[in-house]
Here is the input.
Amino acid sequence: MPFPRTLTPGPEPRSPKEPQTPARGTRRASSGKELKAHHEDTPRPGLGGLKRAFSWASQRALTQASREAGLLRRSSRSLFRSFRRALEEGPAAGQAQVAVPEELLAVTEGVGRRASLGAGPEQLEPEAEGKSVADLITERQLLAAFEQLRHLETLLIAEKATRTFEQDPTAFARRAMDVCLHYDGLVAEIGAIVRETLGLEGVDTAALTEVAQVVRAEEEAHPAPPADGDFLSTPRHWRQHWEEAVRRSAQERVQRAGLGLTSGAGEGASGLAQLLAELGGLVRRDLQKVRLEVQPAYGAAGFPAWEAYLRAFHSAVAQRLQELARDARGCEQLYLLLDWAANVYGSPDFLGAPDLALPTEPLPPLLAPEVWAQLESDYVSFLETKIASCFDNILQLEQSRWATAEAPDLLQGLYHTPLCIDLHMLVAEHVKAAGAISPELEATTLQICARALGLFVPRFKKAFLESAVVSVPHLGAYMNAFSKMRISLLARFPGALEELEEPLVEVTCSFQKHLVQGLQQDMQPLFRVLCTKSWLTQDTLYPLMDKVVAFAHHLEHVAPPLAQETLQEVHRYVVREYLAQVLRPRERFRGVERVTGSQKMNLDAQAIGSTFLSLGSEATWLDQAIPCVAEILGETYKDDIQRHLETLIRSYPDIRRDHVLAILALRRLGRRRNQSLLQRAQDLLRSEARTEAPRDHLLFAEIEVSASVDVLITCI
Here is the structure.
């Protein structure tokens, strides 16, 4: 970087006839005669006007100073143009109009051209040392360079105060410009040191300490703007320049992370994941370096380097994430951004040590609330489509298993299908991933999963029942799956998935009902031989119990609650269908046959009860139904019939008057006794009607009886 020429203290008066020596690239000064004539025709501009012009020009130049070397040249040209304009405009208000000396224009134009072409002005000579200010800046002896500049600045201000430059204002302009340019050179070198700090060469501790010292020295030398508005003593705000250099350094390094992966990040989640990993590694290494090496170097001068670098990198990372968020596509990429911001960058272990954790209070959110909300909204939109697609894939996978007619596996003695695991993992993994981002996103994901699962269950039930693979093992496997899913999901997400309980219970009950109906269709023809003449002499119940026992072996592979419910339903069906055949007899028994039929019914009741007891049925409330009817049918002491009838009505409150008439029709008692028994039964029925039987304890309510001639006669 070119630096100004050496400036010797004190004024530099020149004769009007002596030509100015132009710098390289500047025009020559006017001849001595022309200068003399010019001086004779026009008065000199006043020093007060020049002072105000310098002050205004310096302020404008300072605001346009840059950390880059190019900005130094632009600042110098601007300052010279401003100074030249001020001279051309003439003296301040209240003074006479004057012409600007041509030699002054030559000086300012020459200096301006040197700055624009990169040629440095004259070097300042140190007072005590043999090195110029430019050499000191080049060797990064910043504090020594500043001390010399400060000395020359103080000397120049003192000379201006003594009106030394009234006869030759161009000398003041030249020396003032040299001081300003060297100040610009100093601040440019500070920016260069900051940019090199995090490079591969390592940390130059001495240079950083020099930067901190020279910034503090400038602040002490220029604590506040001078009262007279002199631009030479104006604070130069080097601390702000240093902070801006830190910010630009952090931004440049963050923007370089993953440059070769930008196209890959747009193509898929893997490229974006690699880019974020590289970005995190770079920021982590740089901040560790700042905390462990850079901060101690600045800390010796009381410089808050850690806070400045932390803010700079935080801002740069936020800007980079917003750029990536604008280009993110698909659920995976959006989640990667959310997860990196919340769990990687926001982790206490991001910098690798607890004492290096990123603070949360002084820093703003990594992503602005509106940006974060938009990211979550986009992610939720993609997530709804993805979860619906996942449920479709699960249904297709199950259908492919049905096509191969694969029997369900046994897992821990129970029929097993992967459906439960697939559905549970689908919901749990998405909810867990969302919960790692925010509680709000977790709740939203739960709602999405609940809606999708609520739509999936009836679709699955319909597809399965319409398939050709429906069998006892498959029905048992899916009963286990949906029952387990209901228990596990509601236990894992209490209070969040209540709307799923109804569809899951419904599909389980539907499969259970379908399972029992299949058994009923196999057993129904075997009940038709009951209460016939052949039934009195043959063991017609044996085939029925064989089917029950075979069916119960399948129930051993069904979850215990469902297996018990299903077994009790089969138990209830057998007793109910047996009584239905008794109350709708195809043949009437009289005399000995009626007694024999009563005994046969008691034997069958014992066989049914003992069989279901051995299978584990807990529906012992069914055991009295068949024996009570058998006792009424075969009771020889007619007065005890009322007692048996009362026992039957109290045990089964769902019995109706039609059932009592059908039972009395089996005995063919006299009209008067029938009316007495019927009246007593009606009284009991009215009293028992106040007590509603449990739904799983209904027996007679599901038995239809016909109004036969015998029943009508009994009523008469």
User: Anything to note?
Assistant: The chain has a mean pLDDT of 78. The CA atoms of residues 32 and 82 lie 27 Å apart. The radius of gyration is 51 Å. The longest helix spans residues 369-403.
